[in-house]
Amino acid sequence: QEQLVESGGGLVQPGGSLRLSCVWSRDIFKKFDMGWYRQPPGKERDFLAAISWSGETTFIRSSVKGRFNISRDNAENTVYLQMHNLTTEDTAIYYCNSYPSDRDYWGRGTQVTVSS
Question: Which residues of the chain form beta strands (DSSP E)?
């Protein structure tokens, strides 16, 4: 099964920025609406943002709106999550998946740690 592979996480100071990438090797990637999700320590995984298959429509959860942005490059089978002004509450494992999510598509995620 072709996996979703997230990357770009790391340790960042409060107020910093990161851009996460997610590559999906499936040839039909460009036909899927895609989403980003995150799981903070000790909490359940939550939805963050979604983008339509064409990239024309995006939705950002209100709690991160204004700081996070989702985009995609269908030629590269890649979806991105740009994050600005990070806080310690953004510390989590970040995942991408189709939108709505499909349990068969979860990858390993990428760890984002916001700490001074």
Answer: 4-7, 10-12, 18-24, 34-39, 46-51, 58-60, 68-73, 78-83, 92-98, 110-114
pLDDT in tens, 92-108: 999 999 999 999 889 99
* Sequence-distant (≥ 6) Cβ neighbours of residue 75 within 8 angstroms: none
Q: Please tell me whether the peptide bond between 100 and the residue prior to it is cis, using omega within 30 degrees of 0.
A: yes
Report the C-alpha gap between 96 and 99 in whole angstroms: 9
Which residues fall within 8 angstroms of residue 43, CB to CB, at 6 or more apart? Answer: none
| Residue linked to tokens 């997610």 | 22
Tens digits of residue pLDDT in 21-78:
999 988 788 899 999 999 999 999 999 999 999 999 999 999 999 999 999 999 999 9
- Looking at residue 1, its pLDDT comes to 58
Alpha-carbon separation of residue 37 from 44, 49, 93 (angstroms)? 10, 7, 8
